[in-house]
Amino acid sequence: MLRLILTIILPFLLPLLLFFFYWFFSKNKKQGVPIVPWFWLIIAGFLLSIVTLIALEMTDHSPEMNKTYRPSQIIDGVIVPGGFVPVKSPENTK
Fold first, then answer.
1. What are phi and psi of 72, to 5 degrees?
2. Count of CB atoms situated within 10 Å of the CB of 78
């Protein structure tokens, strides 16, 4: 859930949050509530979300990418810790 928030929702809402943050702290509040450029803020949020997802896909080179998780087991009364094993490993076929 946290990854969803950080990679999709936050980049999408970031332009809108920055716009209202700028408006809140600007000195020209005499004009009242500003006319919000909704269309451009949504387009900017959408593009920022796409760029974030592309950047994460290009930089996510985790070592567990071609491995499968083997859970811990009890063998002959000894706890064998779990871990990642290569996909074509004979241990993985159990």
1. -65, 150
2. 7
Residue 71 exposed, middle or buried by CB count within 10 Å (0-12, 13-18, 19+): exposed
Hey, what are 80's tokens? 């064998």
- Count of beta carbons in the 10 Å neighbourhood of residue 92: 14
- Cα of 8 vs its chain's centroid, Å: 6
In b/e form, how buried is each residue of 33-62, taking b as 16+ CB within 10 angstroms? eeeeeeeebeebbeebbeebeeeeeeeeee
Contact 88, 67 (CB under 8 A): no
pLDDT, mean of each 10-residue run, the chain (94 residues): 82 90 76 81 92 83 72 93 77 54
CA gap 87, 84 in Å, rounded: 9
The pTM score is 0.57
